[in-house]
Amino acid sequence: MIVQQIVEKALQKAQAAQAVMLSQETSAVDFENDRLKSAESSQRTQIDVKVIVDGKVGVSSTTNPADIEGVVNRALEAAQFGSPAHFDLPDAQSLEPVKIFDPALLPLDKPEMIRMGQQMMDMIKTYNPEILAGAAVNKTMYKVEYANSRGAEYAADHTEFNVGAAGQLVRGTDILLAGHGIGQKKREVDTEEIAAQAIEYFRMAEQLAPLKSGEMPIIFTPSGLAALLLSLGLAVDGKNVVLGSSPLRNKLGQQIASPNLTLRDDPFVAFGPRTSAFDNEGVPRKITPIIEKGVLRNFIYDLDTAGRAGTKPTGHGSSRSLTNIVIEPGNTPYETMLRNTDQGLLVHDFLGLGQGNPINGEFSVNIFLGYKIEKGKLVGRVKDTMLAGNAFSALQDIIAISKEREWVSGPWSWFTGLMPYIQVGKLSVTAK
Questions:
Q1: In the predicted model, is pLDDT for residue 101 greater than 90?
Q2: Percent of the chain beyond pLDDT 70?
Q3: C-alpha–C-alpha distance, residues 16 and 3, integer Å
Q4: Domains of the chain with bracketed CATH
Q5: Cβ atoms of 386 and 366 closer than 8 Å
Q6: Which residues contact 217 (CB under 8 A, 6 or more apart)?
Q7: pLDDT the model gives residue 413
């Protein structure tokens, strides 16, 4: 393997080295404004090298597999000015078996992908010809190869399939955007169901509902949970813990959320969007409990932050991002949750998420897609409305978690996971 050659080359001057090579081939079909916009294929190779020289770390990368000497030399040069190495590279270890490759995706060609996208668009146009419809069908196959100077050598072939349908409806000054998608590592996708869910979002939004400002109960859809999970992800990031900027840094073993909430990071979900057996530092993945019945159990670490914290890495690479987030279901059916709400909001999507001070939990965001709840029913879409509060306070104020769960993934999702609907007692809503 090329990665082995790179490690051998680097060890001529370095005390330790690792190399990761990604070889990727993607086919992407995109529809926009009722028509096919593009149908393209692309290939990409990336090699990342990390060396330790005299206790300092150097890194370099290249997209040219023939540039072995160059990428090694650049990493060695970078080590002269690198940060101290707080870690040793991992030894070779056994890996958990994972389902990450679906051979059924191999024969899927662009004409069939175009047909799938057109079918979803046609369904949306049949529902309402005034909607400007769009769709995306993307197939990716890639291979990850890893080797280091301690004898660890891994390789894995992955497939990915992302499918989505969306549209835009303009009525005077009102612009409504809605859609639905799914991403996974297998071909088995129901395009009719995806389009039907996108249509349902439009149907629910046909009527505008006036809303008064104030504090009220909020039901987060599985996608809407992004407002809370963004802050949680930052707070359990080992780098923020080590730097002292995480508000949860001293709260391991303490109650930080409702006892109803149990959340874990699961890299072994069969064909999950972010399923893998090892991270890009050669550390085997593992299931990491984050919150158990409201109690904070773990932070997530890469090699560097684990070394600085005096603990073990959790298999979260150099980005320290969660893989497949899994929240345990609750006892309340979603429809019961709605019926029990006299006045409130169902929120699905936001604009401006991440602005403000997300690491401390503070958010103040525009509701991009949300629905007013009145006397237990959804009565229409809200417009020009903002939601504000603190994510950590909201996690403590959970009053119901649904029995139902849905996968959040796809071409337009910033996180992936199996999520329920979650109701929070009250948050501040500002409406014009």
A1: yes
A2: 100
A3: 14
A4: 2-204 (3.30.2290.10), 207-432 (no CATH)
A5: yes
A6: 341, 343, 344, 345, 373, 399, 423, 424, 425, 426
A7: 77
